[in-house]
Write a structure and sequence with these properties.
heterodimer; A: mainly beta; seven-stranded mixed sheet; four-stranded antiparallel sheet; B: mainly beta; six-stranded mixed sheet; five-stranded antiparallel sheet
Chain lengths: 116, 114
Amino acid sequence: DSGVTQTPKHLITATGQRVTLRCSPRSGDLSVYWYQQSLDQGLQFLIQYYNGEERAKGNILERFSAQQFPDLHSELNLSSLELGDSALYFCASSVEAAPSSYNEQFFGPGTRLTVL
Amino acid sequence: EDQVTQSPEALRLQEGESSSLNCSYTVSGLRGLFWYRQDPGKGPEFLFTLYSAGEEKEKERLKATLTKKESFLHITAPKPEDSATYLCAVQSPYSVGSARQLTFGSGTQLTVLP
């Protein structure tokens, strides 16, 4: 158990819909990363938040957005869903005590999204 | 752009048959090389961090090593419970406005037969 929690575990929805994925980082971790894992793309970085602020974006679609709340939990919002958005979505957290520090990232169990 | 290549894509071993997995990387200033284990449908589980060439780390039957261009994950006398996908990742250098995201390889799917 990494200490990172994600809900829900599974999500089945229809094309065009909007969903919200939730992540709670490990206690004390300030940084949250979101990754998407699909069969043909592997693990791809989407977005990072550090202590409530967006730090950087990766290959995140404009239909996707995220935020990190004062209690440091994070939500990933996916809208206008398409079949191709079906994937495993992971969040990872890292302590990163200083902006320039490097630390391991610990992954949650993931949310499996199926778009029908 | 950071690049990570893992080989082989898949590896089948008999229980007790030792082997090595390879991770080749191209990165402008390595800040960390990470090994993770991932079971089907689960999140990656952190195994090791290596920071500099020549560094080695061990955990049970696993040993990770690092050179300037590649890393190896050595598996000694594997057991069926070691079956999983092993992922290698590198971390981008810090710069203002950048993320310290991990760039992952595509993984090596290891199967250990009893």
